[in-house]
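Late entry, evening session. Most of the bench is empty. Finally got around to the prediction I had been postponing all week. Sequence below, unchanged from the version circulated by S.P.
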Amino acid sequence: MIGIVIAAIVVVALVPMIALVDLAGGGDGLGLCPDGIGSCHTSYFDGPELLAILTILLFLLLMTLRAAFHVRRLVEAKQFEDALDPAEGGRDRFERR
């Protein structure tokens, strides 16, 4: 899960660069300039709108990553507690004889 979220963060962060490389290669920049960069007429809000969408998406992915790390820490703590459960003989090795 953590690896998938990190990969998604990298992909979202690379979207502007991919669009620029596509424009430089004669493409439409992922739909930003339908007829190529030579005849690109977009509104003033296209750039800030894309920035806002990518920022919100990155924020949500970072929150998901934080939650995944928290869940992992809880699972590890539960496994550690179960390993030391006296009913299962886990604390025997820590008692003085």
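Two things to note before I forget:
The mean pLDDT is 82.
DSSP finds two helices and no strands in the chain.
Will write this up properly tomorrow.
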